[in-house]
Amino acid sequence: MANGNQTRCPVQSATEKFLRSLRERNVSPHTIKAYSGDLKNFSAYIDSRKWREIDHVTIRGFLSQLYEKGLGKTSVARSLAAVRSLYRWLAQEGVVEQNPAALVSTPKLAKKLPRVPTMEEMNSVLDGAMPEIASFPERDRLMLELLYGCGIRNSELVGINLDAVRVTADAVLIRGKGKKERYVPFGDAVRSALAAYLPARQMMLAETHKSTPALLINQRGGRLTTRSVGRIIKKIAVAKGLSPDVHPHTLRHAFGTHMLEEGADLRAIQQMLGHERLSTTQRYPQLSMKHLLSVYDQTHPRAK
Length: 304
What we know:
The protein is mainly alpha-helical. The protein is 57% helix and 4% strand. It has a three-stranded antiparallel beta sheet. A hairpin with a 5-residue loop joins strand 2 and strand 3. Helix 2 runs antiparallel to helix 3, helix 4 (56-68) runs antiparallel to helix 5 (73-92) and helix 11 runs antiparallel to helix 12.
C-alpha cells in the first residue's frame, strides 16, 4: 500500500477495487449500486483507520450508527452483508487474514412478516422470461408488476376491471377497503406488461367464448381469485429463487420499503398504498396525482 490515498483511506481504495472486480464478474448493476452505497457509508465511518485497527466492535459501532440514522433492520442487515462480502474479497486478495464482520450477528428480522425481497431479488424475478411453470406468462408478469409496481392488495388486484386502467394517464383506479377509490400511478414496466397481456387476454376470451369486465382472467375466461393469485405468485417466486413464504402482500410490503429506501416521502407512499390513517385524517392535504406521479417516477425501481 505505497500510494498516499491507500494509506490515508484503505477502505475507500479497497472498495473501489472490490466494485471493479464485481463489474468484471458481470454482477447485476442493482447489486453493485446497493454495495456501493453501503460501503461508501462504511468507508466514511472507518475514515483513515487501517485494516488491523478494524475489529468486530468497530463494525458493530458502524451498524449502531446506521440505526441512529433511522435505518431499519433490513437495510442494516444489507449493509453488514456488503461489509462481509468486501472482507471475503480482501481475504482472497491476501490483504486481510481475519473477517471481523463474520463475528457480528445479523440483525434479527421480525418473524411475523416474511423478509422483504431486496430490489436486486425483485428485479431478478421480473427481468427476463417468466419461468416454464407460468401457465399464462403474459398475465402472470402483469400480476407481479402490478403487485410490486403499484403496491396494491391482492383483493384490489383481482377487483381491477379493464376500464379502470388509464394508460394515457399512467395510472389505475383502485377500489380499496370500504369502497374507497384511489388512483395509483404506474411506470414503464407495468405499461409494457399490459401491452403484452391485453392481446393475449382477448385471445383467451375468444377461445373460451366468455366475456368479463375483469382485467385479470383465468384460463376459463373468468375473473382470477385471490387464492389463485397467491398460489401463482408463490410458484413463480420459488422458481425464480425467492423464499417459499413470498405471497402477494410481500410484494406490497417490498413496494413501500423500496420506495422509502429510494427517498419517497412517507405521505405519498401512504396514499398510494391506500392506508386508512391518511384518508381519515384531515391533517394531511391529499396529494395531487401530479405529485404522486413525480414521486413514483423518481423513486420506484420499476418506473423507468
